[in-house]
Amino acid sequence: MHLLVLLITTFKLVCFNISTLISTPPNPSIFVKRNILILPTLLPTPKQNKKETFRMASQTIANHREGAEIFHGDDICKKKTIQMLEELGLPKGLLPLENIEEFGYNRAAGFIWLVQRKKKDHTFKKIKQVVSYGPEVTAFVEKGKLKKITGVKTREMMLWLTVVEVYIEDPSLRKITFKTGTGLSDSFACSAFELGE
């Protein structure tokens, strides 16, 4: 909710200042296209950066293969993903990936990875939240927490924000918090992320 309020406030400020920006000399770091203001922090990531991020995730997986439990095939990978989430005290439907080719869990390093055939967008119906899961999803894990996550984004209004951490601070409250790369976070009821949601 706080994230939504912040985004709406930012949008209002940007709209208020659009006429000033258009009437001033052009600034190479700000673009106005079809009456839409695009700030540099909101520009899409260039393809080379996406490839670089993907390569870095693949390298991180390669570095943690030794000593990891590795499974192949959609059925067993889904089963192992659910077991891992249950073990960590996280909702079982948090990672609703499809066509999973590989699941790996290096317990010593606290590192997990999932490789699926292609990216998947999923809408969690109870909270009407769209989350995108890339072809590779990685995270460092500990009880009640996924951190340094790669491959997961959430949509807020028309922006895709990278999710970097998911955690349950107090299990008795049954609230799960999602933190984005911008430092903003939002909490939801854990029931919104159960299997089939």
Shape call: globular
What is the radius of gyration computed over CA atoms, rounded to a whole number of angstroms?
19 Å
Judged by helices, strands and strand pairing, the structural class is alpha+beta
Largest sheet: 9 strands, antiparallel
Give the helices and strands as they follow along the chain: HEEHEHEEEEEEEE
Q: Strand-residue fraction? A: 35-45%
Number of helices: 3
Report, as a whole number of angstroms, the end-to-end distance: 20 Å
Helix content: 25-40%
Q: Can you give the mean pLDDT?
A: 80
How many domains, in number, for the residues?
Answer: 2
Unreliable spans: 9-48
The tally of beta strands, per DSSP, is 11
Provide structural commentary.
Mean pLDDT is 80; it is low at 9-48. This protein is an alpha+beta fold. Strand 10 and strand 11 form a beta hairpin. It starts with a helix and ends in an 8-residue tail after the last strand. The chain is 28% helix and 38% strand. The chain has three helices and eleven strands. The chain has two domains: 1-42, no CATH class; 44-193, no CATH class.
